[in-house]
Design a protein that fits this description.
Low-confidence stretches: none
Helix content: 25-40%
CATH topology: Trna Endonuclease, Chain: A, domain 1
Distance between the termini: 33 Å
CATH architecture: 3-Layer(aba) Sandwich
Shape: globular
Radius of gyration: 14 Å
Largest sheet: 5 strands, mixed
Number of strands: 5
Structural class: alpha+beta
Strand content: 35-45%
Mean pLDDT: 86
Number of helices: 2
CATH class: Alpha Beta
Order of helices and strands: HEEEHEE
Number of domains: 1
Strand order of the largest sheet: 1-2-3-4-5
Amino acid sequence: MNKTGREAEDLAAAHIVRHGFKIIARNVRIGSFGEIDIVAEKNKVLCIFEVKALSRSDTFKAHHHFTEKKKQKVLRLAQHIGNTYNHNEGEIAVYLLTIDNLADEPIFQIFPIFLSS
């Protein structure tokens, strides 16, 4: 992971902790399937965060990097994470956390992608 990616994930983790989430794990690799940036928990819901960030951009935003293909991959990984953390019976939420303007005054947004019940 490059410096910008590491910085973005550190800021994202701090941001969600400030909003009441408990970090369970970061950069969780699921075999050759891929990696989940942040696994957290809040109110007994297992929360999976994909982090996207841009240093600067006036027209292009970080969420534009989250394609349908990437969304499907994250959802598949979320199923594996639920099994890994024995959370089969509980709720799982998947979020896209974006950080725009990372180099100056970061702007955070959290987009819900999926919620199981």
